Amino acid sequence: MYSQEPNESKPFDQVETTFQKVAVNRTFAGLERDRSQLEYEEASVPQAAELEACNRVMLQRRDQLLEATARATNVLLTLENFDEAVNTALKIIGEETGCDRISILENIFAPPSQFPILYNFIYEWSISDFLRLTDRLESKCLPAEAIKREFLEQYFLKGEGFGGLLEEWEDPLRSSFAAACVQSAYSVPIRVNGQWWGILCFDYCRAPIQVSPAEVAVVRTLADCIGSAIQRNRIRQEREQVIQQRTADLEEYNRILLKRDQLLEATARATNVLLTLENIEEAINTALKIIGEGIGCDLVIVLENIFESSSPLPKCCNFIYEWAAPGFLSLTANFGLTSLPAEVLGFAFLEQYFLEGEGFGGLLDVWDEPLQGLLASVQVKSAYSVPIRVNGQWWGLLCLDYCRAPIQVNAAEIAVLMTIADCIGSAIQRDRTHKIILQAEQLRVAELVKANTALKHSLDILAAEPDLDCFIGHTLQLIAQQFDAPMVEYWHHLEQGEQAHVYLRYWQGQIFKANEIQQFSKQLAREVAQVSAPQGLIPFLDIPLSIGDATIGALSIYLPKYQTFSGQTLELAHALTQQLTLAIELSRLAEEAQQSALLQERTRMAREIHDTLAQTFGGILMQLQAATYFTNTQAEQAHTHLLTAQNLAREGLAEARRSIWTLYLEATEYEDPARTIAKFIDYTSSYQSISIRLTIDGVPYRLHPDLGLNLLRIAQEAITNALRHANAQTIQIYLSYSLQHIRLTICDDGCGFEPQSPTRGFGLLGMQQRADRIGANWHLVSQAGQGTTITITITNPTTP
Amino acid sequence: MVDPITPSQLSKTIRILVADDHPIVRQGLVAILNAQPDMNVVAEADNGRQAIEQFQAYEPDIAILDLQMPEVSGLEAIKAIRAVFPNAAIIMFSIYETDEDIYQGLRAGARAYLLKDTPCLEILEIIRTVSEGQRYVSTEIGTKLVARMERSNLSDREYEVLSLMAQGKSNKAIAKQLNIAENTVKFHVANIMLKLGASDRTHAVVNALHQGIIKL
């Protein structure tokens, strides 16, 4: 029905066409029947003329009737106003047929009985007001008792009507008819959609006119038409009703949709506010206002559960956010309290509807006491609550109250309420997460500051405290403070073997060294036991001190059993441990470097002594031995040996002097022969009058101290030789640096000598040996009277 | 005073090679030796390499080799000569009386160990003793030798590490040079210290130098 359009006319036309067809068929059927009767009468009645006359009259009547019927049918089919149509049709029929009164009775049924309980006169036409049936009978209806059941069943329910002169009717109808001036009456049933609907009555009051069967048939046709018209009218009325209903429904739906739009808009706005506003207080308060105004309620409240112990049900619910429509007091102001104990709300109620359910609400009477009384006391007329869940946990309640009228909230509004509750839950969750992150960040910053301070402090100690043991002690103390640990130990890992032993122990503010731990072992053990017993001191953490894959030691932190600490503390401990490792390793390296430097220096000195003093003394001794040996036999030979010994002693002394001058140099100065040679020239020039010039070519760079020292010693030897033996006027020294080579050239303009001469000095040999030792090339050019040039070349001087 | 000439000395002149890098020491010694009627210095050498060459060229009865010589050390020269001439009679000649030198030299086949400050008569005595196919070890040298023999030997690797330690090289540098892990160097150093009875690496090197295990 809903699918049909109200203006569609086609079904009407079909119904009308059907009725017309029925009417016409009926009419022609009546005519056919009439015609066969007439043919029969013509055959049976001899007086043809009389019959013909009679026929003519009857045919005329029938034609009149048919015409009237057709007109009436037309009226019934065309006039919009049904009552007018029926009345007009009755009038047409009455006037054309010459009857005095036509009435229509409608059956009033009381199901399940198929017989009417009452017959209402609903339409009536009469030739004069005097004959109006309802006036005559002084009633607008006919009681059921007025017509016998058998009669009804025979003629109307199943039959096609009854009619005749007054005397043919039976009581009580006959007496009723008599009171209504009836002389003859004909009635046919009106059927609507196959069901007996009522009766069409023709009354003749002025004369007892008998109606022919043909005329009755026409009347039946009229009854059918009326039935059809009634049905059509009914259908139309039904349809109109449907359309009206549908329009009303649509209006209702539109209203609902409009409201839902408003709700959705309110929801969207509230959600948006909850999601975007940074300040959660402001966000929730704004959202409550939007919802209150959007739904049109008077109070919107958020209650937060206050939990106790591990129960999933709260011990009370606190009012934390409230919105009240203008002119209404907030609930807290009204109640004078800010918290509702769970007992008031009822544990079972809370569990059923909020912990596990999706809320509760309705008019005041659905609420149980004492809540009902409580709500009534603040003029709440209907109230709805849904749970707010945060991260899946029941967190609190969102409540709507209506105070002005007991408004029932529909499913859509409840859905909005739940959406908002979800959003509030999310907003709270977000706010909580935000706060936790913020707190964590603050905590982390604080920890970092703490860690930095501790590390800086530790570095300060390292800088100020050259003693490694003290530094380790400070570090132990720092770590103990960070962990609030009563005992921290530093275990030293021995290089050889796998043993480790406690090197230092921090115990309650004091540092004990390994020997002290041993010395006071019993006392310490007793103290530790005393402190440990109540707290349950356990070796909590070992942090190894590692360098590469080697472990040089470990820190052991002892803590009471249930003591906690943060991850940052642990990181700090690791950082301090690394610092400690670094300090220990640096000090070990420094010690090693110091030892290495010492060894280098010793080695150099030992070599110097060997090269100068020991060798010289060896030579002198041997010469003196020879001199002694030959004293008595070969005085001359002995004398030569003594002279050699003297010379050697002199050279040795000069060598020792230079050597001692060299040893006064700082170890690092050896690395820079350009400087040391220049220095030596200065020193020599201070007591020599000849010119010694140093020329440096290229950019000097640092050499291994051994190389530098030997270059210096060679230069010294060459200069000394030139001064002592060559009688030179000038000495030129060239020192040239390149990446691949370093070359030292000493040139003098002295007397020179034959290189092959066996008398060449012991000094030359020393020089040569030095050059050999440092892997340098030693080259001598000399000729008697031509001066001497010595060249020493070191290849790849920077390669160790 | 002239030493009386004995028939045995007449019968045989001891042919001698003297190798010493210090020409004045050598010259003094050669002068004394050549003054002996039963001795003749047939060859001289400045360094170990020359010493080996001269020995091969002259096959002397006695070779007096200085231990501290450039290019090839006295000890290496002894080994090289003994490898070719298993019966070569060699006298070690040194300024120093380090037990390691004594031990190593005698082990390599030297017949005597002579300090350069030995009185020359004693030197001549020893040369004659050795030329008769005997060994000569003085009481002092013998004591040193015993001390050395009581000590456990350093392994070759430990010797290498010790030499580098003496050059003042750090563990790291030693590890790099020997191409071994630093921890291994530490392990060797610990063992060296143990064997040399030293408390730290300086002490170890000083001890090693005293004992002549390493040379400068």
Automatic annotation (TrEMBL), chain A:
SUPFAM superfamilies with a match to the protein in the record: ATPase domain of HSP90 chaperone/DNA topoisomerase II/histidine kinase, GAF domain-like
DNA-binding in keyword set: no
Domain Histidine kinase residues, every copy: 711-798
PROSITE patterns: HIS_KIN
Keywords: Kinase, Transferase, Two-component regulatory system
Pfam family, one: GAF
Top-level taxonomic group: Bacteria
Cellular component, GO, one term: membrane
A GO term for molecular function: phosphorelay sensor kinase activity
Entries under InterPro entries matching the protein: GAF (IPR003018), GAF-like_dom_sf (IPR029016), HATPase_C_sf (IPR036890), HATPase_dom (IPR003594), His_kinase_dom (IPR005467), Sensor_HK_TwoCompSys (IPR050482), Sig_transdc_His_kin_sub3_dim/P (IPR011712)
Protein name, as recorded: GAF domain-containing protein
Species of the source: Oscillatoriales cyanobacterium SpSt-418
UniProtKB/TrEMBL annotation, chain B:
Response regulatory domain ranges (all copies): 15-131
Organism per entry: Oscillatoriales cyanobacterium SpSt-418
PTM annotation (4-aspartylphosphate): residues: 66
Name the record gives this protein: Response regulator transcription factor
SMART domains xref list: HTH_LUXR, REC
The HTH luxR-type domain, residue ranges: 147-212
InterPro entries, per the entry: CheY-like_superfamily (IPR011006), NreC/VraR/RcsB-like_REC (IPR058245), Sig_transdc_resp-reg_C-effctor (IPR016032), Sig_transdc_resp-reg_receiver (IPR001789), Tscrpt_reg_LuxR_C (IPR000792), WalR-like (IPR039420)
Keyword Thylakoid set for record: no
Biological process, per Gene Ontology: phosphorelay signal transduction system; regulation of DNA-templated transcription
UniProt cross-references to PANTHER family, sorted A to Z: TWO-COMPONENT RESPONSE REGULATOR (PTHR43214)
Record key words, sorted: DNA-binding, Phosphoprotein
Lineage: Bacteria, Bacillati, Cyanobacteriota, Cyanophyceae, Oscillatoriophycideae
GO molecular function, one term: DNA binding
Parts forming coiled coils: none
